[in-house]
Amino acid sequence: MTVPARTLATGLVSALSATTTGHRATGSTGPSSAPTDGPARVVIDLDLPGTTINRHLYGHFAEHLGRCIYEGFFVGEDSEIPNTRGIRNDVVEALRALHIPNLRWPGGCFADDYHWKDGIGPREQRPRMVNSHWGDIVEDNSFGTHEFMDLVELLGTEAYVNGNVGSGTVAEMSQWIEYLTRADDSPMASLRRQNGRDEPWKVPFFGIGNEAWGCGGNMRAEDYAALARQYSTYVRDQGGDPGNQVTRIAAGASDDDYAWTEALMKAIGTLKGRESKPSPFQAISLHHYTMSGPWGDKGSATDFTPQEWYLTLSRAARTEELVARHSTVMDRYDPFKKVGLVLDEWGTWWNVEPGTNPGFLYQQNTVRDALVASIHFDGFHRHADRLVMANIAQTVNVLQAMILTDPDSGALVLTPTYHVFAMNAGHQDASALDAHVLLPEEPAEVDGRALPMISASASTTGGTALVSLSNLDVEQARTLVLDLRGRSVTGHSARVLTGETSAAHNTPEQPDAVAPRALESVRDHERGLEIDLPPHSVVTVELQLGD
Questions:
Q1: Which one of 3.30.200.20, 3.20.20.80, 3.40.50.720, 3.40.50.460 gives the CATH number of domain 55-429?
Q2: What are the backbone dihedrals phi and psi of residue 499, each rounded to the nearest 5 degrees, phi first?
Q3: CATH 2.60.40.1180 region(s) of the chain?
Q4: What are the backbone angles phi and psi of residue 175, rounded to the nearest 5°?
Q5: Parallel, antiparallel, or unpaired: how do β-strands 449-451 and 454-460 relate?
Q6: Which residues contact 261 (CB under 8 A, 6 or more apart)?
Q7: Is 80 a catalytic residue?
Q8: Which of 11, 91, 238, 360 could disulfide-link 182, Cβ–Cβ 3.0 to 4.6 Å?
Q9: pLDDT in tens, the chain (547 residues)
């Protein structure tokens, strides 16, 4: 059934009334549009660059969960799958093509059960452990600190190591950062050399526990805030090397728990001046997942209705509202934005694929997931003044993965989400440009918030600009004008990602069912360019700029 966009505000909301709750909050943010009497357009001032979009907003997450580490990244040196020291070559090649800026490890909930010394030394001598959070399976610790840092170097990325507060000790965390980053003959540096690594690694990011309000210890906000100050004190910059300084990230809130963020900011104290004393931690985290149903029945990854499509995209848009509101809490204590916000777990969370282990969180990845990712990126770009890092959950075989590996054939599949990351890679470290969406129809109201059918963002890196456009309409194509101002455009190219249906996805048998292709329906227009957007599609337009 075709649902015209202008009727969504009545028809769709009526259809969803039995399953949605909430109302539009004053001052909420997300994809927005202004009315226009003319054609749909996106207005961009190419000569007004803004905040730099930190490349770390395109970060990734690899937890000891399901088949993410074992069978995903790590297959062992004896595997028939081509590998380097046990790490899959094809996974590394695919992720290097994305220029992934950082990788978070070992969790997640797993981090607060993980004792790092169990994962060093000869593999055959490492003790086993129970992964109680994810499947209640026994792990042999064959993938530990050295294997992870080897992976980081193979990927050409940066390490985000998450320490254990829930079941660990201050001394344990202090020794880990010494083991990782100290260059001299200290006890932990000497132990690292005994295990085969002479030079220290660089670890730019270190997490002080994970989800301390839940699986990381079921703590109260004020209790964790005090521990975060204590533990952060002992995650020291080792040996005076200015090139190996650590950004300490306190475990922050879930969803709309603004009181948790306030407790952490109070623990820091008000940072009134640019020269205020250093904060015990330099960033705080936030976790938020997108799903179309309640926690107990999150919805199917591949079997969903048009109503569930729009509900999912509306809930994806809520992430930006949460980022904005947590940022507002932080602004009261830190007006100069010296402390960063890190969304180090985000993405879709569906019911697991039928017949798979429910503790492994393996799900398919469709065009809908691609649109969820594109909406997130547009929001990230708008809040790049405070949001300094984001990590999708997770990289391989878990939740909204970049890559799926077949357990029988070993085949590798790139997901639609992978392709959205690839198409948007040009925004990394670029200067954000405001992208104003003007639409002839009122936005839909879904799940208590306005949802325009076009989402957009843009950035520039001097002689080029990259424009990202998403058509959220599940069935109708859209024609819009890129209203380009301030600089001349001397050339352009465009790519589109979509599928035959909104549930289209890639498999070993059809690995390119959803893959980027050139978009030919781009025409010169008196205001700039005119573009035809297919239904349920993500489009990027690269512009070559003149004066």
A1: 3.20.20.80
A2: -145, 175
A3: 5-50+432-545
A4: -70, -35
A5: unpaired
A6: 252, 253, 284, 286, 326, 329, 330
A7: no
A8: 238
A9: 222 333 333 233 222 222 232 223 333 367 888 988 889 999 999 999 999 999 999 999 999 999 999 999 999 999 999 999 999 999 999 999 999 999 999 999 999 999 999 999 999 999 999 999 999 999 999 999 999 999 999 999 999 999 999 999 999 999 999 999 999 999 999 999 999 999 999 999 999 999 999 999 999 999 999 999 999 999 999 977 777 899 999 999 999 999 999 999 999 986 665 555 678 999 999 999 999 999 999 999 999 999 999 999 999 999 999 999 999 999 999 999 999 999 999 999 999 999 999 999 999 999 999 999 999 999 999 999 999 999 999 999 999 999 999 998 989 999 999 999 999 999 999 999 999 999 999 898 999 899 999 999 999 998 999 999 999 999 999 999 999 999 999 999 999 999 999 999 999 999 999 999 999 999 999 999 999 999 999 999 999 999 8
SS3 145: helix
The single residue of 147, 178, 321, 345 carrying the catalytic annotation is 345
Return all residues near 245 (Cβ < 8 A) that are at least 6 apart. 204, 237
Contact (Cβ atoms closer than 8 angstroms) between residue 443 and residue 473: no
Token couple for 88 = 């899959």
387, amino acid identity: L
Give start-end residues of each CATH 3.20.20.80 domain in the chain: 55-429
Active-site residue, from 211, 262, 320, 321: 211
Residue 43, SS3?
strand
Cα–Cα dist 368/357, whole Å = 23
Helix (H, G, I), strand (E, B) or coil at 187: helix
Q: Give dist(CA 25, CA 15) in Å, integer.
A: 21
Q: Which helix (H) or strand (E) holds 103?
A: strand 102-105
Spell out the CATH class of 5-50+432-545.
mainly beta
Q: Which helix (H) or strand (E) holds 330?
A: helix 306-333
For the chain, what is the largest distance between any 2 Cα atoms, rounded to a whole number of angstroms? 72
Q: What's the burial of 257, exposed, middle or buried (CB within 10 Å: 0-12/13-18/19+)?
A: middle
345 is known as an active-site residue: yes
Between CA 101 and CA 439 the distance in angstroms is 35
- Phi and psi for 187 in degrees, rounded to 5? -55, -45
